[in-house]
Specification:
Blueprint (H helix, E strand, L loop, with lengths): L2 H4 L2 E6 L10 E6 L18 E5 L6 H9 L5 H7 L5 H4 L4 H12 L5 E6 L2 E2 L5 E3 L4 E2 L1 H5 L1 E6 L2 E6 L4 E5 H13 E5 L4 H11 L8 E3 L2 E3 L3
Parallel strand pairs: 1-13
Antiparallel strand pairs: 1-2, 3-11, 4-7, 4-10, 5-6, 8-9, 12-13
């Protein structure tokens, strides 16, 4: 059963635009606001998930077939990775990425920001962490630090480096390539838990396990 068929229903009032205004009807729709989110701590359990890097040739339905022998569990891959918008949350092809960077920035080779390198003093003490974002003033200036009880300095361009617009977007895109695949033996259990999580609790708006009224 596809993902949208598993979503619960919601009934909302639809009132006519002309007289008599007292008449009303109920429209049945899917409740897209009912969400099921997997916690980040779940990915620490290597017995349940396998890490996978998406290639330019991959599609989620293909991955579902590859790992689960059916394309119908593409929604399982999306939900277990908390992917909401496949356009923004999944990586784009490298050739499309370059065009996107040109469209967004104009010059893909222009400097986006600067980042620090790891830097230690003469005694091996860590002075500067790697990966910190700094500005052009830091890169073109002088960095002062304590070295064995006295103040020393070093050129900023020796402990930091420029990151271009394309390099920055490529890094973000590559981070999106890393996803987690729920091991096949746990898929049915996940589906059962998902279905249970989509059921409504008894309340004043309750109609049945998969349907409630809105606005009550």
């Amino acid at each position: 059963m596809a993902y949208f068929n598993r979503l619960p229903n919601i009934e909302f009032e639809e009132r006519p635009l002309v007289f008599p205004f007292s008449e009303k009807d109920y429209v049945l729709a899917k409740n897209f606001f009912k969400r099921y989110k997997v916690t980040e701590s779940s990915y620490n359990f290597q017995n349940f998930f396998s890490e996978y890097n998406i290639t330019d040739e991959d599609r989620i339905d293909y991955l579902s077939y590859k790992f689960y022998n059916t394309s119908e569990f593409d929604w399982v891959i999306l939900i277990t990775n908390n992917i909401i918008n496949t356009y923004f949350d999944l990586p784009v092809k490298d050739v499309d990425l370059y065009e996107m960077v040109v469209k967004s920035y104009g010059n893909p080779d222009a400097i986006h920001h600067y980042e620090t390198k790891e830097f230690k003093n003469s005694t091996g003490q860590l002075v500067l962490k790697a990966g910190l974002n700094v500005d052009a003033a830091f890169y073109n200036g002088t960095y002062k630090y304590y070295n064995n009880g006295s103040v020393a300095s070093v050129a900023g361009n020796t402990i930091s480096y420029p990151v271009t617009n394309y390099e920055y977007e490529l890094r973000l895109n590559n981070e999106k390539r890393k996803i987690y695949i729920l091991r096949p033996e746990f898929v049915q259990e996940f589906v059962d838990q998902f279905d249970a999580g989509m059921e409504y609790a008894i309340s004043s708006s309750y109609i049945d396990r998969t349907t409630k009224k809105a606005g009550i």
